[in-house]
Amino acid sequence: MTLARSGDLVAAAAARGGAVAAVNAIMLEHVEAIVAGATETGRGVIVQLSENATTYHGGDPVPLLSAAQALAAAAPVPVALHLDHVQDDALLARSLEIAAAVGLSSVMVDAARLDYADNVAATARFAEAAHAVDLGGVRFGAGAGAGDAGSASTGSGLYVEAELGEVGGKDGAHAPGVRTDPDEAAAFVAATGVDALAVAVGSSHAMTSRTAALDVDLIARLASAVPVPLVLHGSSGVPDDALVAAARAGIRKINVGTALNVVGTAAVRAELAARPDAVDPRKPWAAARAAMTREVARLLALLP
After folding, report:
1. The domain that contains 113 carries what CATH number?
2. Rounded to 5 degrees, what angle do the CA atoms 244, 257, 195 make?
3. Which of 38, 103, 104, 267 lies at 20 to 30 Å from 77 by C-alpha?
4. Which tens digit of pLDDT belongs to each residue from 179-207?
5. CB 175 within 8 A of CB 197
6. DSSP string spanning 65-89?
7. Among residues 8, 60, 84, 110, which one is catalytic?
């Protein structure tokens, strides 16, 4: 069984001086592509379901997470499950209830829209509750794969990620004035007890062109100041060489979502254009799944 803990994969990445890819899934085909790409490269991966994707599925993350759990259990590489960018209090509470049943090992509580004091308070409340979750009945087994090896384990507590600063894209362009301050980040981690911190260093969500310019010096300063692993959101818009530089500077988890949707929807368009009378959805979505698998494999092979 290779259902893994997110925290174990992040720790393995830190130990080798690299980063683990965390890839967003919206539909089952995304999950299949992510697991297939990881299997092809022999690398561990984190499958993420965002609050937006949960909303698309009627507000309930259990069906897709359950399918992801089954795929993870059958995979020859470590696959961890994560809920991403959760702002809704009801979904945060739900994540605590369902974690053991679906093999969920980490959650990102996103209170970055709030002012600093309220972000600290909301994040600290959730972190305390999440760390108390009993995952003792879940058997996690981290299979070998490019530095992601580990022994089978059980244990309690969800791994908690939070965000400080503002990673733009969905609500406006990213601006230097909202980038994460190293001293404030260190104080935030101390006050909240989170296990990982998403930082604003120049990337933006939902970019379809790879033109984001990362502040690698700021990443290095944050890595020196902050005692927990750093996470890069909005990585679809970051060029390959900058992703590698970010990992080497101290980013330990690299989130990707839009890049899969770009190649996946392009494959669907091409398939439907070639067969305008087609009514069977399997062919266009099989093409999309294959394209997304290639993109996942390319990304995983790239990262140190």
Report:
1. 3.20.20.70
2. 70
3. 267
4. 788 999 999 999 999 999 999 886 565 55
5. no
6. HHHHHHHHHH-SS-EEEEEEEE--H
7. 84
